[in-house]
Amino acid sequence: MSINSFGRLFKVTTWGESHGPAIGCVIDGCPPGIRLTAQDIQIALDQRKPGTSKYVTQRREPDEVEILSGVFEDERTDGPRTTGTPISLMIKNVDQRSKDYSAIRDSYRPGHADITYDQKYGIRDYRGGGRSSARETACRVAAGAVAQKVLNHLYGNDIQITAYMTQMGPHFIDRTKMDIGEITNNLFWCPDPIAAKKWESVLDQARKSGSSLGAMIEVTASGFPAGLGAPVYGKLDGDLASAIMSINAVKSVEIGAGVEAARFSGEDNADEICIKDGKPHFLSNHSGGILGGISTGQDIIARFSVKPTSSILTPRRTITNDGQETTIQTKGRHDPCVGIRGVPVGAAMMALTLVDHALLQRGQCG
């Protein structure tokens, strides 16, 4: 059994490989009557697509999405609307260079899933990693755009999801200079313009040397109502952590204060509550907007680390698929910092988690 689906009521199944003819997803459980066009999805995909700058892979994929099913339009629908049936999305692959991988077809790239795929399946697509390639995340971003449309349908435009990089390699942003308005003004989704400028030279050096850098990404969701989630096995933070951890190259996930909570005292960590304008009001948000697996109504805050891209030019020791020791040098077109294109993927997984819990809440509590 292979698990390629995410979600309970809003279920997304992705399909396709890095060097196959196309990739895509099927979304089941989308409510009917929501206005949806390919352009709504394309806006999100354009934020993730490769070849947009020298700081990402130079693979030239337009990532143009096609809606194959689940949307209908005639003179009575006032534009294309979801029908409540499965929405099938397809993105064609047009710039594969499979020959770039012919030299490593019999060797396992350190840091990649090559060896574990062989250990599990006994067969692997060595061309760009096949199913394990980050190319699959385009499907998540497309589905995430649909999820955001559903959230807008359920809650107006109250829910705003924002993702940005807070660290590249050993270099952090200065949170006292943090300005969310800056994240679209640079190539790194960085809310600190001074840090973004420094990252240019840092990543240039890594890129030119054939190396790579890791990153830390933060995702926030504001406007999500209180009371959604579940107290035991369907925890909102548990599902969110699982969603983010499923992204390629992610090695850790934090909610709210995260690992920093380990150094707090009980007095420091407790988010005190008062009444403001007749409503509960929290004086801090160490919990990241989730208590006991249930949303508090505060901003939901998640943070995740992305390892350096494993495809580097420096020769590394490895073995072949017949057990011989050798060295390997990975050529081809790769992201010097995969975290850059991971930012919109993190936002998509936040949207997919929230919409699934929104529909679960509606199903259980009305």
Notes on the structure:
The chain has 366 residues and is of the alpha+beta class. The chain has helices at 38-48, 114-121, 137-155, 193-208, 236-245, 266-269, 339-365; strands at 5-6, 11-16, 22-28, 65-69, 71-72, 81-82, 87-92, 160-168, 171-172, 215-222, 250-255, 273-276, 279-282, 290-291, 294-295, 300-306, 316-319, 325-328. The chain has a five-stranded antiparallel β-sheet, covered by helices on one side. The chain starts with a strand and ends with a helix. The model has no long low-confidence stretch (mean pLDDT 92).
Question: What topology does this entry show?
Answer:
Blueprint: E1 5-6, E2 11-16, E3 22-28, H1 38-48, E4 65-69, E5 71-72, E6 81-82, E7 87-92, H2 114-121, H3 137-155, E8 160-168, E9 171-172, H4 193-208, E10 215-222, H5 236-245, E11 250-255, H6 266-269, E12 273-276, E13 279-282, E14 290-291, E15 294-295, E16 300-306, E17 316-319, E18 325-328, H7 339-365
Antiparallel strand pairs: 1-2, 2-3, 3-7, 4-7, 5-6, 8-9, 8-10, 10-16, 11-16, 12-13, 14-15, 17-18
In terms of DSSP E residues, the strand content is 15-25%
CA-atom Rg in angstroms: 21 Å
Put simply, the count of helices is 7
Main beta sheet? 5 strands, antiparallel
Q: Would you report the number of β strands?
A: 18
End-to-end gap: 34 Å
Helical percentage: 25-40%
Mean pLDDT: 92
Overall geometric form: globular
Content-based structural category: alpha+beta
N to C succession of SSEs:
EEEHEEEEHHEEHEHEHEEEEEEEH
List the uncertain runs.
none
Strand order of the largest sheet: 1-2-3-7-4
